[in-house]
Amino acid sequence: METRGRPKNSRNDVFKFVNMNVGDDECWLWTGKVMGRDTRPYFSINGKKWLAYRVVYEVWYQHELQPGEMVRHTCDNRQCCNPKHLELGSHQQNMDDMKARQRHGLPHHVVRHIKRLILKAVPNTVIAERYGVSEGLIRAVKTGKIYSHVELQDGRYSDPLHGELDDVED
Ligand SMILES: [Zn+2]
Fold it and tell me: Helix, strand, coil: what percent of the chain each, to 5?
């Protein structure tokens, strides 16, 4: 079918919406549309919406994803479209990842991201979904029960609900 007027996206156009100017090993953030409470990145092709990082994976690795095949983020960043941070996995592996993260702890940079989102009053469910952890974990971060030693780089983390800081200087 001939398309007239506004050209439609083809699969290969997905990289037009990926910020790759940050270096090969950094997270390449999606600059296109995000949808839903969990702000997943979406890319539409002929009116049909696809998870952007799945399209990235397919185009980059020349692999057609099958139903049930999940694309996992090794960087824990849902907005990331760097193919190096994407790998194929099953739903079970995703669940296993989540359990392992809860058991062994989150990398501190992830904790900082979570704390920033908490300060921005992003709902627990959204943060939990984005990082593949439970809402209970987010609540525990919020109340300072866990990771209270991980401080935001740009200033000390203080929770307005639990204002007790270990060392107040001012
Ligand atoms: Zn990444």
Answer: 35, 15, 50
